[in-house]
Description:
- With 393 residues, chain A is α/β, with parallel strands linked by helices.
- Helix content of chain A is 30%, strand content 20%.
- A six-stranded mixed β-sheet of chain A has the order 6-4-3-2-7-8. In chain A, strands 15-14-16-19-20 form a five-stranded antiparallel β-sheet. The first copy, chain A, has a four-stranded mixed β-sheet with strand order 9-10-13-21, covered by helices on one side.
- The interface between A and B is large, with 66 and 66 residues.
Amino acid sequence: MMNNENLILLDAAEAARRLSKVRACMSADGIGSALIRDFANIYYLTGRVFDGYVCIDMEREPKYFVRRPMHLCGENVVSISKPENMAEHIITDDAFALELDTLSYSAVQRLCRAFGIVSARNVSGALRRARSVKTPEEVATMREDGVKHVHVYSLVPKLYRDGMTDVELQVEIERVSRLEGGLGQFRIAGDSMELFMGNVLAGENADAPSPYDFAMGGAGADPSLPVGADGTVIRPGMSVMVDMNGNFNGYMTDMTRTFALGSLPQKALDAHQASIDICRVLEKMAAPGVEAKVLYEEAHRIAVERGLEQYFMGHRQHAGFIGHGVGIQVNELPVISPRSRDILQEGNVIALEPKFVIPGTGAVGIENTYVLTAGEGLKSLTNAPEQIIYFAE
Amino acid sequence: MMNNENLILLDAAEAARRLSKVRACMSADGIGSALIRDFANIYYLTGRVFDGYVCIDMEREPKYFVRRPMHLCGENVVSISKPENMAEHIITDDAFALELDTLSYSAVQRLCRAFGIVSARNVSGALRRARSVKTPEEVATMREDGVKHVHVYSLVPKLYRDGMTDVELQVEIERVSRLEGGLGQFRIAGDSMELFMGNVLAGENADAPSPYDFAMGGAGADPSLPVGADGTVIRPGMSVMVDMNGNFNGYMTDMTRTFALGSLPQKALDAHQASIDICRVLEKMAAPGVEAKVLYEEAHRIAVERGLEQYFMGHRQHAGFIGHGVGIQVNELPVISPRSRDILQEGNVIALEPKFVIPGTGAVGIENTYVLTAGEGLKSLTNAPEQIIYFAE
């Protein structure tokens, strides 16, 4: 007995809103139709992940090609066993596009052969831009996510035990996060990053450079995953930066708070305050139409003004950004970096993470996830105390 | 102060063994030189993950192009800031290859432009074949992994509490796995699967079809990650299948055991015994030179003979394989499926998972990870009791 289930989980109005945003971005790129395969994009368009494709064009309703699971149904749902089955259903003219930034070269070759074409346009950028401006429903979903994320962080001081390592503390945070409904999955676009549920950085380990494109590093517990907690025992005088996964509903909020054991040197306290101050300034400065790079420049200017430049966004190795879009994936548009060409738009959801690494102490600073409003700058979705939180000795 | 660190973490003899296997597979595919980017392949060749490329040809020592972290050094290590920097260092003739199965179409286009070529051969298959035959050092690493994996499973009965959901049980298993040194990261090749640390399937949820290419499904806790535990309360008469991540050192073992609360119907007990019996038969039948599909056929034959065909590898949705290679990633060669063309080789490490889904009860069966020996068939790396383990009521 197979119980059929409607493929589309979004309500009709929300699905139409997302579709019309995607179409507008496709049109701006000269794309007339596109076949979508990336799980994050399929989730965006339908509200669920399935193994298959969504075909979008400018006029007709989308078509949903489903390989698995086989019990999904609805209007315009076509069951396929292989990509070649789609050829008779889609029109592949000069304006046809595929997700060239995420599909493998071999996958694109196979699709082109199946459709009798030699190349396709690239729809990856259009989807990325469409997804960077969240709908009110998406913002509401992320707001709920932020509430849970904040709750998990409020439990962190109770999880600390004398003599704990960074890994042990992280494991206890993972546990409470999962018990609060955290899905664990850390969705990252592209192939330049790997991470398991987030980062807890204690003391000098924050200064260990990692291969990945994260704001902070950490040596990690194994050379197969060289990032984050490395087994450092948490000792007095160390900062402990907690930057853990907040994916409770398919959307992610990104949030960092700094904890510490014992007292930290004045330089670390100053840097932490600088991080908070930078957030306050950028929250007001951000507005639709502002260049993303201007936010980076202002953050950098404040760091320099306070004599903290050498610790800004790392010490042995520096990250090249202080913020990034976040949503279904942790690295969405806009990018807040010196060479970013992104222009802020109402509905962007942006994580700001102006952080510092102080030798001998560790990482300090905060990260919040914000939604960009029309008239009130950035509004935080991760409302929790921002001062350093001290573990009971 | 930047402390430099040698890039190569493998000992010289082991690095040479792996290189010579890769070269032999490249040569068989008519490939003269290749640029390797995939993290799993970089880890295989060097013993660490870094952001960059490894260039292999038939005569010269490999070259290591490192973008990040910047403190890695050693012979033939070249620092790059972008792929274009490699052009002057490599020879891209007709026999030059890239990993076309994992690099995105856009990434391949960019590399081809940088090197002034229009296309490249595909080295993905050569790497996959080379990695499918483990070196003795890799087998030793996986053996250590299996010991830890087995230890974690031995703790599962103590983690069960009356009234627990499948998610809650899974979270406690995740915790003990992580505290035993589990890295959490579940490395999967390709874009057809997503999973967070493994699967715990209780009762009827085992029969919920998933979009992913795993042996078993499960509805999952959210449509953004529709696989595995879904919040089912564990009740008497349910089986609880535990198939959790065993990545303690960069290599994965794959292992499943079935737990239960109260008594299970005879059909479920028979199916569980059939799974064990299938493993016993295949352990002896497997030998270098045997076709992988023959193992599938024999497993299927036993399932049919015992009247269990409709429950074999799923009930509402059936998986098309009963085993797979495993190593750095969970889905390596050989594939044990009816249409597999793979021939078993000494040194293959293979997970066998002949499982059944019994309506009203749940999933039963076992999974072990084995190394294929020259004269003694498959030797298990996951040596733990295989009978159903009953939770204390």
